[in-house]
Design brief:
Distance between the termini: 18 Å
Order of helices and strands: EHEHEHEHEEHEHEHEH
Strand content: 15-25%
């Protein structure tokens, strides 16, 4: 089962990344983002691409520059996530055949991102716009636009976001904090997946 969850491994180190992603993939979370403000992020991303090719979608977060998009494309990354809406970054990402998930907050940013070719929209920080805000923006967006809530969405409130129109989630500290054990990551992943599956099943009833 493919789940619309992006694991955000901010702060992870290259020597730790494979073990943590092993347990994430085993739990059913197969889209992995290593933010570029993590220690030696390209090293981590390269290791993950080599190890999980065909089993997980690997890419970078906090991507702010076209030069970084080019480097990721050359490595074979599959997804580029940004905290902002930069049409040049989006266009370069899509031209390279990767998925583009820019950060948006307003209808203006949403439509600019879509015009530039964004795969989907990352509402960040979602905690500030809330489910009601996403529901309002959803009403004016093209039908079927993928919307991910990032920041403030988690196991305790997935149903509320899904009812508002969120189609997926980016999960950071609820899954991983720098220095935590692999066992802690496995337990967090199991909790997130269980809550997500239950919320999605309830929404489809």
């Amino acid at each position: 089962m493919t789940r619309n969850i992006i694991a955000i491994l901010r702060g992870i180190r290259p020597e730790d990344v494979e073990a943590h992603v092993d347990v994430l993939v085993a739990a059913g979370i197969t889209t992995i983002e290593v933010p570029l403000n993590s220690p030696e992020p390209f090293d981590s991303i390269g290791r993950l691409i080599a190890r999980f090719a065909g089993r997980a979608m690997i890419g970078a977060g906090t991507v702010l520059e076209v030069a970084d998009v080019r480097r990721l494309a050359e490595m074979g990354a599959a997804i580029v996530v940004s905290p902002n809406c930069d049409p040049a970054v989006i266009a370069a990402t899509r031209a390279a055949g990767m998925e583009s998930w820019p950060g948006v907050f307003t209808p203006t940013e949403c439509f600019a991102a879509l015009k530039a070719g964004a795969t989907g929209l990352k509402f960040f920080p979602a905690t500030l716009i809330g489910p009601a805000g996403i529901a309002a923006v959803r009403a004016v967006l093209p039908k079927g636009t993928p919307l991910y809530a990032v920041g403030g969405a988690g196991a305790d409130n997935f149903p509320e976001w899904i009812r508002a129109g969120a189609t997926g989630f980016g999960i950071g500290t609820a899954l991983y904090r720098p220095g935590q054990s692999v066992e802690a990551t496995a337990a967090a992943a199991a909790k997130i997946v269980s809550a997500y599956d239950a919320a999605l099943a309830a929404a489809q009833d």
